[in-house]
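User: Teach me something about this protein's shape.
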Amino acid sequence: LIEDRLKDYPFLYELKGDINFNKGDFNSAIKEYEKAIHSFKEVFNPSTDLIKFSLIKTYLQSNNKKELKKSIMVLEEILLNNPNWSYLWRLLAKSSGKLNKKGVYYIALAEEALIKKNFIKAKKYVDMANRQAKLPTSYRLRGADILARINVIKHSNK
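Assistant: First, the predicted structure itself:
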């Protein structure tokens, strides 16, 4: 069988995941995307991030708390390699919003606004995030970094 010969070929699993996603079989799609990601041997491969992106979109379809938590973890991984991919920040906001993690939600929206050069909105979201008692330290620091980047940009444009 061709599947036996291609069992370690990640793009076969990705294709199966895409097919299952399009059929609305999200649980099967998740399994196939996870197989694709695990079949990559390298530590980082840009293709892995694209498959993880598909996995995240599938996690978000489930509205399952466990899957939503996984989506945040995977998004944080991908954002390390792609910090300027604004749609990833939007998806992080969506995932964290569904889990009622308001601080993370606002920081993600602030990052997206900053990438889109909407500095007023970015500052507003950081201010809203900082009012959240349960804002994780890493996101509080990210908010401070956003404000610092806004100030640098404003002063360099004068």
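Now, about its shape. The mean pLDDT is 91. The radius of gyration is 18 Å. If you'd like, I can walk through any region in more detail.
User: That's plenty for now, thanks!
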